[in-house]
C-alpha cells in the first residue's frame, strides 16, 4: 500500500478521533496515546479537533455519529480480555477513514482477519499468540506502522511516539513541538525504529543465526561488514545466510543492511545537528553521491530535503 496522506485530515473541522479504550485506565499504552492527543485538542480548540473516548460496550448503538480516525486500544497484558462484541467494534473501526489498533487491539484486529496484507506493528510479547509465518500476515518488528488507512502501534512507550507522529502528520511540526515541550520530550522515534526485542522474540529460539546476524549489522553501522564477513562471524555460509534473510525478512542481507543504515541516517538528520556529510560517514557512506542516491531511492527525497523538511516543518 501507499503511505497515507494524513495531512488531508486537517481539513476536517472538527476532526473527530475515537479511542476505544478496552484496557486498564492507567495502562501505559493508553496514557501514551491519549495524553498527546488530548493536549493537541486543547491547543487547537474544539472547532479543529475533538477526541472521543468510549469503552467497547458504549458506542455500537451510536450509529449516527461519524469519526474520521478510530483506534482500538489495550495494553498487551489485556490480550486475553477480547471484547465480547468485537465484531461490532471492528465494524466501527473500519467505517472510519483511518483506523487500527494499539497494543492488544492490534492482535484482536488481526484475529478478526481485517489486517491481511497490511504492514502491521504487533507487540513483540504477543508474537506467540499469532502465526507470524502465515502467508497473509505482514507483521513487522517496528514501533508502529502507517499503511494506507491502517494505523497500528506496538503500544507501551511507543504509543507516545505514535500519537506525536499522528499530530505532526496532520497538523504540522509546530503543534507537535508545543506538545513535546509540555511533556518534556526531546525526540520522537520514527515508525521504522524497531522494538528492541522483537526479532529475538520472533525468531530467537528458532533462528538464532538470523538474530545474531541482525545484531551484528545494528552494531556496525559506521563501518559496515560485508555479507561474507557476517556469514563467517555467525558460522554459516553466505548462501545459508541469504536464504534465512529471504525466508524470514523478505530481503537479501545486503539490502536489509543498507536500509538499516539509511533509516539510521534519517533518524540522525531529524534529531541531530550533524552535517549531512557527517551523517553519511556515521552510517557507513564514504561517498556523498552514493548516500544521496541510496537515500532518495528508499525515501523519495534527498538527505538535504529531509533535513530542510524538519527545519521548516510542514506548511
Automatic annotation (TrEMBL):
InterPro entries: AraC_XylS_family_regulators, Class_I_gatase-like, Homeodomain-like_sf, HTH_AraC, HTH_AraC-typ_CS. Residues 211-309 form the HTH araC/xylS-type domain. One of its GO terms (molecular function) is DNA-binding transcription factor activity. SUPFAM superfamilies: Class I glutamine amidotransferase-like (SSF52317), Homeodomain-like (SSF46689). The keyword DNA-binding applies. Keywords: DNA-binding, Transcription, Transcription regulation. SMART domains: HTH_ARAC. The keyword Transcription applies. This is Helix-turn-helix domain-containing protein. The lineage of its organism: Bacteria, Pseudomonadati, Pseudomonadota, Betaproteobacteria, Burkholderiales.
Amino acid at each position: 500500500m501507499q503511505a497515507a496522506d494524513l495531512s488531508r485530515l486537517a481539513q476536517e473541522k472538527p476532526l473527530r478521533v475515537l479511542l476505544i479504550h478496552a484496557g486498564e485506565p492507567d495502562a501505559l499504552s493508553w496514557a501514551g496515546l491519549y495524553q498527546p492527543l488530548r493536549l493537541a485538542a486543547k491547543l487547537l480548540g474544539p472547532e479543529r479537533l475533538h477526541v472521543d473516548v468510549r469503552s467497547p460496550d458504549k458506542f455500537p448503538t451510536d450509529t449516527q455519529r461519524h469519526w474520521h480516525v478510530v483506534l482500538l486500544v489495550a495494553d498487551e497484558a489485556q490480550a486475553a480480555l477480547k471484547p465480547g462484541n468485537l465484531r461490532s467494534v471492528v465494524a466501527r473501526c473500519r467505517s472510519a477513514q483511518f483506523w487500527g489498533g494499539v497494543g492488544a487491539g492490534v492482535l484482536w484486529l488481526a484475529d478478526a482477519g481485517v489486517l491481511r496484507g497490511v504492514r502491521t506493528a504487533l507487540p513483540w510479547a504477543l508474537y506467540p499468540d499469532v502465526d507470524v509465518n502465515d502467508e497473509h500476515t505482514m507483521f513487522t518488528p517496528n514501533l508502529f506502522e502507517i499503511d494506507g488507512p491502517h494505523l497500528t502501534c506496538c503500544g507501551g512507550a511507543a504509543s507516545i511516539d505514535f500519537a506525536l507522529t499522528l499530530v505532526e502528520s496532520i497538523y504540522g511540526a509546530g503543534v507537535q513541538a508545543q506538545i513535546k515541550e509540555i511533556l518534556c520530550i526531546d525526540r520522537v522515534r520514527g515508525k521504522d525504529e524497531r522494538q528492541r526485542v522483537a526479532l529475538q522474540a520472533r525468531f530467537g529460539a528458532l533462528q538464532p543465526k538470523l538474530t545474531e546476524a541482525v545484531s551484528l549489522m545494528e552494531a556496525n553501522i559506521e563501518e559496515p561488514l560485508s555479507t561474507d564477513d557476517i556469514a563467517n562471524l555467525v558460522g554459516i555460509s553466505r548462501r545459508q545466510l541469504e536464504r534465512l534473510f529471504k525466508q524470514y525478512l523478505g530481503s537479501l542481507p545486503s539490502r536489509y543492511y543498507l536500509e538499516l543504515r539509511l533509516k539510521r541516517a534519517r533518524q540522525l538528520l531529524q534529531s541531530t545537528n550533524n552535517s549531512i556529510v557527517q551523517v553519511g560517514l556515521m552510517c557507513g557512506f564514504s561517498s556523498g553521491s552514493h548516500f544521496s542516491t541510496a537515500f532518495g531511492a528508499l525515501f523519495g527525497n534527498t538527505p538535504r530535503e529531509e533535513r530542510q523538511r524538519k527545519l521548516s516543518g510542514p506548511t
